[in-house]
């Protein structure tokens, strides 16, 4: 491949200098997404419900030379989502390139045993939070001129999984 073609491809596919928010970035898929984006020189802000986990991950990423910031946020709470996006707007100067709605949870129970509180918590965390964060991030994504949203779902939304009816519904939504 010619050097000019390689440089052109690198420019087209580069994420260097972009900004991203990844919810639930201290564990599992979210952690891997934060590392992958940071490895492509994206400035990432993540959130977690757990301050200790967040601090450990931020230190780990700092040691790797990644540009990652973070804040405590339980995405099941509307006011915390709003605070998260105000923080993100401040850190990234009113612009955002990538929103990754990754945070999610489940409560393993038979469908007939799910309480109204269980249903509300699962739908709030897995569906409402993603929808609301899309709304809140819209002005920032638009201001960047180059915005993308990634919603992490689950195979459980299309395949029956025991004790996961509400989880499946929330991820399907």
Report on the architecture of this protein.
This protein is α/β, with parallel strands linked by helices and 173 residues long. It has one domain (16-172): Rossmann fold. It contains six helices and five strands, in the order αβαβαβαβαβα. The protein has helices spanning 3-13, 28-39, 51-63, 78-91, 116-144, 165-172, and strands at residues 19-23, 43-48, 68-72, 98-101, 148-151. The protein has a five-stranded parallel β-sheet with strand order 3-2-1-4-5, with helices on both faces. Helix 4 (78-91) runs parallel beside helix 5 (116-144) and helix 5 runs parallel beside helix 6. It is globular and about 60 Å long. The mean pLDDT is 93.
Write the layout of secondary structure elements.
Elements: H1 3-13, E1 19-23, H2 28-39, E2 43-48, H3 51-63, E3 68-72, H4 78-91, E4 98-101, H5 116-144, E5 148-151, H6 165-172
Parallel strand pairs: 1-2, 1-4, 2-3, 4-5
Helix pairs in contact: 4-5, 5-6
Pfam families: adh_short
Family: Belongs to the short-chain dehydrogenases/reductases (SDR) family. SDR65C subfamily.
GO molecular function, one term: oxidoreductase activity
